[in-house]
Amino acid sequence: MATMAAVLSEDNRALLRVIRDQRPKSLTALAELTGRRVPNLSRSLRMMEGYGLVRLKRDVHGVAPVALATSFKILID
Prior knowledge:
Elements: H1 2-7, H2 10-22, H3 27-34, H4 38-50, E1 54-59, E2 62-67
Antiparallel strand pairs: 1-2
């Protein structure tokens, strides 16, 4: 539960919404949109990529984040 709460924190959900709505072409563009530093974003996005929430699309121009999930339904048995 603690890991899920950290992964789906308000900051991370807001980050997913920005990625979904603004479709930044790079981490630098995302940093400008969110006011966060690129290294901080990179750490958050790599963690979220590990959980299948984002894809970091790499090309010759850099890394572009793509939101794969933006709404969540949590069932606890």
